Backbone:
């Protein structure tokens, strides 16, 4: 996936990004990436596993 | 004068040896020789060998030696198709030019080529196409194997102690490897013995042989086999693919737990004699939790009492005024969970998160569509193959029986591809699932924390609290390092009309 730049993040957030510094936005992006990874790697994967009844792995 | 010729036939898959592919190749070449009035003096059959390299094909090497001997007086080497001779242009040309020096030409019996410049160019193109086909197939196989690996299935040879559930590839498709009832107990016992630290690898191998390891494996156990088994994380459920340097969580049943594996691995592979297993999972705050008085990271230690172990975070700085404050891990984690339950990411983080999820989802959908198109083109190619079999039958190259056999193979391939295609599902992104995740976990970080493994917990800790949690002298966990991307949940509670206690003073937030 193409990297989300601060400029792009400002476009996405619109007025929500007003008075938010670049540094803060950078942190927002990093956290959003972490959550996105957790969403795909843990949440979606686990949902699939539950539905297909795969064995549990410690 | 009657010319002497030799025939070269080859199949790359051992499973093709017993069907009549080699026979068909030979018959076609024989018919061709008969029609020209040539005498077949010898046949070279290469069984189960790829045409990628010349040096890996003993029969081809023997053929070259035979054909280049003057007394054999060979004029032609007959092949069914050029891709039987070589699927590597460079290697193929070297072999052809070597034969040409001795006035031996390679002739494809089903492809029209001659010794003219145009014929030579056509031959080279056919070999290039063979090479291209090989390389594309190789890429496809690699991609498929990687996809299977990421799904938690083991695409390589079964590790000792495991076996495939069924005999054929088709039947095993999508299924994890299972424990081999005769070998698995021996491997499990070996790990248990290894984790005691009493035995070396040779002694472990001897014990395995006493358990009849050699009866179920190609050789008896030795220190090398033991070393290899001990090095594989596969046995506790984590798979590692060396060729891609990738890890994945396997869906197979582990033979041992991670703790036993770690202990055995450290003692015998890394040879750390004083290794004591330290379960880092028990201390997720390790590194981030600091003593409020001196700022030093708190160490972790188990303490024995009442026949069980108790785990603590502890300040071991001798110069610290806290006099070695010590907090039980359960109590520390309980307080930490309270802090997590009182914060949530700001709305702008949620907005960016949603954008990223939907973009990635779009990409996944596009990739899936591409995969489907690729399979469809393979199916079309197979259908073309069916047509060419029909043509070959009409022109007498195939007998009806042979054509049926060949068509059956192609139809089977088409069926497999169709199954593969139907297995791929385009999962449209679902705003409800995303919302569910946000409400369930992002607005309840304590719940998210509960379901994460150690590395992800540490990543979250670093992002939310800049990696710093403090423990006061009176054993209170607090933090003053909240990331500006998060906010207190108070306002949300107030909106909902719920009675949320203020954590600010008690837990020491400075937002």
Residues:
């Amino acid at each position: 996936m193409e990297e989300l730049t601060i400029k792009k993040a400002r476009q996405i957030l619109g007025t929500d990004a007003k008075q938010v510094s670049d540094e803060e936005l950078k942190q927002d992006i990093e956290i959003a990436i972490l959550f996105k990874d957790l969403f795909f790697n843990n949440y979606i994967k686990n949902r699939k596993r539950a539905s297909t009844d795969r064995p549990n792995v410690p | 004068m009657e010319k002497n010729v030799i025939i070269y036939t080859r199949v790359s898959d051992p499973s093709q040896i017993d069907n009549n592919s080699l026979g068909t190749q030979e018959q076609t070449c024989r018919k061709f020789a008969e029609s020209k009035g040539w005498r077949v003096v010898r046949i070279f059959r290469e069984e189960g060998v790829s045409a990628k390299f010349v040096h890996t094909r003993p029969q081809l090497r023997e053929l070259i030696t035979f054909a280049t001997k003057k007394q054999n007086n060979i004029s032609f080497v007959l092949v069914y198709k050029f891709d039987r001779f070589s699927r590597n242009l460079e290697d193929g040309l070297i072999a052809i030019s070597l034969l040409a020096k001795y006035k031996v030409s390679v002739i494809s019996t089903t492809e029209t080529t001659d010794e003219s410049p145009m014929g030579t160019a056509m031959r080279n193109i056919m070999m290039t196409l063979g090479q291209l086909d090989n390389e594309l197939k190789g890429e496809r196989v690699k991609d498929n194997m990687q996809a299977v690996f990421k799904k938690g299935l083991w695409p390589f040879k079964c590790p000792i102690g495991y076996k495939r559930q069924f005999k054929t590839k088709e039947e095993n498709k999508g299924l994890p490897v299972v424990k081999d009832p005769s070998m698995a107990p021996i491997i499990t016992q070996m790990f248990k013995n290894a984790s005691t630290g009493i035995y070396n690898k040779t002694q472990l191998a001897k014990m395995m042989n006493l358990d009849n390891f050699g009866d179920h494996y190609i050789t008896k156990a030795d220190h090398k086999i033991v070393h290899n088994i001990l090095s594989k994380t596969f046995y506790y459920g984590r798979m590692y693919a060396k060729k891609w340097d990738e890890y994945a969580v396997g869906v197979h049943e582990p033979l041992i737990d991670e703790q036993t594996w770690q202990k055995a691995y450290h003692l015998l592979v890394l040879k750390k004699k004083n290794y004591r297993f330290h379960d880092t999972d028990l201390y997720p705050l390790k590194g981030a939790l600091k003593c409020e008085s001196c700022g030093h990271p708190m160490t972790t230690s188990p303490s024995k009492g009442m026949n069980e172990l108790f785990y603590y975070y502890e300040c071991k700085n001798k110069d610290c005024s806290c006099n070695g404050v010590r907090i039980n891990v359960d109590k520390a984690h309980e307080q930490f969970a309270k802090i997590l339950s009182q914060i949530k990411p700001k709305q702008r983080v949620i907005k960016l998160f949603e954008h990223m999820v939907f973009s990635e989802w779009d990409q996944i959908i596009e990739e899936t569509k591409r995969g489907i198109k690729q399979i469809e083109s393979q199916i079309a190619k197979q259908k073309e193959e069916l047509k060419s079999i029909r043509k070959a039958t009409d022109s007498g190259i195939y007998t009806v029986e042979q054509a049926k056999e060949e068509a059956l193979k192609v139809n089977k391939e088409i069926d497999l591809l169709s199954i593969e295609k139907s297995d791929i599902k385009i999962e449209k992104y679902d705003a409800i699932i995303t919302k569910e995740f946000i409400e369930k976990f992002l607005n309840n970080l304590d719940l998210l924390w509960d379901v994460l493994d150690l590395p992800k917990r540490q990543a979250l800790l670093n992002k939310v609290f800049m990696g710093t949690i403090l423990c006061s002298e009176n054993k209170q966990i607090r933090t003053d390092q909240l990331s500006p991307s998060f906010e207190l949940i108070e306002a949300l509670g107030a909106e909902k009309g719920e009675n949320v206690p203020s954590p600010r003073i008690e837990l020491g937030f400075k937002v």
